Amino acid sequence: MKFVHTLALICTIASPCNAFTMIPNNKIIAKTVESVQQSKYSTTQLAALLSMDLEKPLGIILEEVEENTAQGVKVEELSDAGSAYSSPFRDQLVGLKVAEVMGTDVTAMAFDDVMDCIINAPSPVNISFEVEDDGEDEDDAAGVVTFEVGTAIQIKVIQEGNPDKIIDAKVGDNLRKTLLDNKVELYRGLKKKLGNCGGGGQCTFCAVDLVEDESEGWQARMDYENQKIPKFPTARLACVNNIQGPATIRVQ
Question: Which of 72, 80, 104, 224 has the smallest C-beta neighbourhood within 10 Å, fewest atoms?
């Protein structure tokens, strides 16, 4: 009997805020969200993990990867009532295998065990999905410098009215979370403090300017950012970017 479960039904804490980031696999070089969106998912080479912080209800319907075997679960479909449906990656999620829940590897777990991990997790739930790629990344072939996930780097933060700050971070860490954890005032002013989307990629209040000639390993920003902040070509939405290498950024 094949198990299928709707997370929209079992996760009952509702909130509109969610964050979406991509964490590349630590065995290969970092790739950005746009690489994920362009992948054809036609081979078994694991290119990256698509990591999302989603408020409950998630609205994700899961099924076993292989019936009656402990081989993890994959996304069967999404409910438009859940937070996953409102993410920029909803068109990519169906068919992806769940890799981690709150940092726990669930790829070899039975269906019920994976469900227990999700049900018992706090909201928002950090959940990662395996993303596959069918060939060599174009930037790799062109000799662009890249850094393995977990590589220790530094981020220089420039903000008017404050002394420059050097932050120790790692490739693969979410940029927004890193800045907030290091007491960077990402949301200045009452409008941003009260009106920010909590990392959902919607408000654009977490946009920072990437100083490209002082940054290394960062790929071109994704189409989603081009659409949200077209007037600022060097800006990045901190909530949807994982750190790809050492960088200098300007914060408003």
Answer: 80
